[in-house]
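Entry 12.
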Amino acid sequence: MDTITLGLIRLLGALPLAAISATTVNPFMWYVTRAAASSSYITLTLLVILGLARSMTRLNGGRVAWWLDETHQFLALLTAGLIGLHLISLLLDALIPFSVTNLLIPVAEPYRPFAVGVGVVTMYGMAAVLVSSWLRRRLGHAKWRLIHYLSFAVFAGVTLHGVLAGSDSSQPWMIFVYVASAISVGLLTFIRIFSAPDSPPTRAGYSRR
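Predicted 3D structure (C-alpha cells):
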C-alpha cells in the first residue's frame, strides 16, 4: 500500500472522530448562559415595575415603604449580578467563541450580530442607570431623574435582544414571560404618564373652593 493511499485511509478514519468530538462539547455553560439571561430579564422586569410603583406612590403624595426601597435596590444588584454571569458564561462557552471585545464593542459578533449588538448597547444604558442610582445624592434629583428615563429604553432594548438572540424565544414559557412583562411595564408606564397627583389635603374645618 503506497503512502498516498495510507494517508487517505487515515484521514477518512479521523473524520468521524472529529465530527463526534465537535458534537460532544460540554453544553453546561450554554445552559448557564440561557438561565442567567432569562433570570436577569425577569428581575429587570420586576425592577422596572417596582420603580414605577415607587414613582406613582410619591406622585400621589404617599410615602414609599422601606421594604419597597430595599427590594428595589436588591433587585438592581441581583440583575447586575445575573448579567455579569451571563457575560462570563458566554466567554467560557466553547460552542460559540465570544471574546471580551465582542462583549464590549458591538462589532464582528460571532452570533446574530444585530441582536447581540443591541444587547451590548443596552448593557451600557443599564450600567448608566445603576451607577446613577448609587450616585443619586451627588448627581442631584434632576440629573438622576433624567438618566433614569433610560430605564424604559433599556427595558425595550433588552426585550428586543432577548427575542432576537435568545434560543428559548420560541418556547411557550418564554413567550409568556415576554408578553406578560411587556404588558405589565407598558400598562404601568401608561398609568404613570397620565396619572395626576391627588388633591393636596385641606385644613380641618375648611373646604376648597
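Annotation: The CA atoms of residues 1 and 35 lie 54 Å apart. Confidence is low (pLDDT under 50) at residues 3-23, 198-209.
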